[in-house]
Amino acid sequence: MSDYTPQKHHKFTFGLWTVGNVGRDPFGNAVREPLAPTYIVKKLSELGAYGVNLHDNDLVPIDATAAERDRIVAEFKKALDDYGMRVPMATTNLFYDPVFKDGAFTSNDPKVRAYALQKTMRAMDLGAELGAEVYVFWGGREGVETDASKDPREALKRYRECLNFLAEYDIEKGYNFKFAIEPKPNEPRGDIYLPVVGAALGFIATLNRPEKFGLNPEYAHETMAGLNFVHAVAQAIDAGKLFHIDLNGQKIGRYDQDYRFGAEDLKTNFFLVKLLEESGYEGMRHFDAHAYRTEDEEGVWDFARGCMRTYLILKEKAERFNADPEIQGLLHELNTDSEGIGGLIRSYSPSNAQRIMEMQFDRAALGKRGYAYEKLDQLTMEILLGVR
Ligand code: GLT
Ligand code: MN
Ligand code: MN
Ligand code: MN
């Protein structure tokens, strides 16, 4: 039996805002007391996490004086040192304050856009001071309720200007952040720009320094849009753009639920963990989720333990899948190419084209072939259900 105890080398991280979530929702107030960031650092370290991530204002209140900021940051750094914790990712809160109600980088008001840049530059300074390597851009308010309010082309232009600006700031300061864009289709705006992974990948190609930018895909966000998160992550990996990942649980078509990792759709989460583990992805396994609103503090730590434990269980299931002779036999059969036809397809040459043109295909026989995916999927299910 495997040991599912999280260790530092597993690179599990949580946002301060995740375990620190007090359970507020649009219909009800907080149900839990706020937890001090230094206490979160201590608790997560004891649970086996590698680090904590933060927005500027998860740590430093938006109206703190410079002296207050320095005191808070010094205290927090001491806690990180005391408990052997890192801050691998930092980001800016560009959504909570009323100033951002029409967006931050895409607001119609140039003063708001300039303020968003100032706030982000300061938050980058903070992130760099804490040793963060990835800087996330979640454009939660970058969207509209009505397209009467702004031309979407203009919004993308403003978004691009701001990201280009910040890339130069990063270079000038020598921070060397990896910038990770986090897409989301809606909520809190009616429609958010760059709604899904594919949209963000396309947008990155239009930036001045596309090499600095990648993705921070979130399970819940692609799933809200009814998309296959594993495919989205695979596309980011394929493009060399998986800089970070937000893991959680979500039902299709609902509001942003941010449930405990693995709480919904075990099969998708299984293939997700398998993909991450086999792809050589070396980044953080970050949980952007929170405990159910029904929970007290003990429930919050049950939640955090559960995220990491489920990940490790699914990792072991992936190893089991790879070691299963019947599954591997089926996969082997599916991938055999005794006539070497794959080689003809791999790249164009006049002779390969000629040979393909001359091939005789028994279309009827090809169309009759069974692929045995029912058996393969059932075997996968049995591994997940623990009987295999
Ligand atoms: C917010 C959002 C998340 C983002 C965070 C980063 S904040 O909780 O719901 O998906 O990752 O800004
Ligand atoms: Mn979310
Ligand atoms: Mn959320
Ligand atoms: Mn997220």
TrEMBL record:
<comment type="similarity">
    <text>Belongs to the xylose isomerase family.</text>
</comment>
<comment type="subunit">
    <text>Homotetramer.</text>
</comment>
<feature type="binding site">
    <location>
        <position position="218"/>
    </location>
    <ligand>
        <name>Mg(2+) 1</name>
    </ligand>
</feature>
<feature type="binding site">
    <location>
        <position position="218"/>
    </location>
    <ligand>
        <name>Mg(2+) 2</name>
    </ligand>
</feature>
<dbReference type="InterPro" id="IPR013022">
    <property type="entry name" value="Xyl_isomerase-like_TIM-brl"/>
</dbReference>
<feature type="binding site">
    <location>
        <position position="288"/>
    </location>
    <ligand>
        <name>Mg(2+) 1</name>
    </ligand>
</feature>
<keyword id="KW-0413">Isomerase</keyword>
<feature type="binding site">
    <location>
        <position position="182"/>
    </location>
    <ligand>
        <name>Mg(2+) 1</name>
    </ligand>
</feature>
<keyword id="KW-0859">Xylose metabolism</keyword>
<feature type="binding site">
    <location>
        <position position="221"/>
    </location>
    <ligand>
        <name>Mg(2+) 2</name>
    </ligand>
</feature>
<dbReference type="GO" id="GO:0009045">
    <property type="term" value="F:xylose isomerase activity"/>
</dbReference>
<keyword id="KW-0460">Magnesium</keyword>
<keyword id="KW-0963">Cytoplasm</keyword>
<dbReference type="InterPro" id="IPR001998">
    <property type="entry name" value="Xylose_isomerase"/>
</dbReference>
<keyword id="KW-0479">Metal-binding</keyword>
<dbReference type="GO" id="GO:0042732">
    <property type="term" value="P:D-xylose metabolic process"/>
</dbReference>
<dbReference type="InterPro" id="IPR036237">
    <property type="entry name" value="Xyl_isomerase-like_sf"/>
</dbReference>
<feature type="binding site">
    <location>
        <position position="246"/>
    </location>
    <ligand>
        <name>Mg(2+) 1</name>
    </ligand>
</feature>
<dbReference type="InterPro" id="IPR013453">
    <property type="entry name" value="XylA_actinobac"/>
</dbReference>
<feature type="active site">
    <location>
        <position position="55"/>
    </location>
</feature>
<protein>
    <recommendedName>
        <fullName>Xylose isomerase</fullName>
        <ecNumber>5.3.1.5</ecNumber>
    </recommendedName>
</protein>
<dbReference type="Pfam" id="PF01261">
    <property type="entry name" value="AP_endonuc_2"/>
</dbReference>
<feature type="active site">
    <location>
        <position position="58"/>
    </location>
</feature>
<keyword id="KW-0119">Carbohydrate metabolism</keyword>
<dbReference type="GO" id="GO:0000287">
    <property type="term" value="F:magnesium ion binding"/>
</dbReference>
<dbReference type="GO" id="GO:0005737">
    <property type="term" value="C:cytoplasm"/>
</dbReference>
<feature type="domain" description="Xylose isomerase-like TIM barrel">
    <location>
        <begin position="42"/>
        <end position="302"/>
    </location>
</feature>
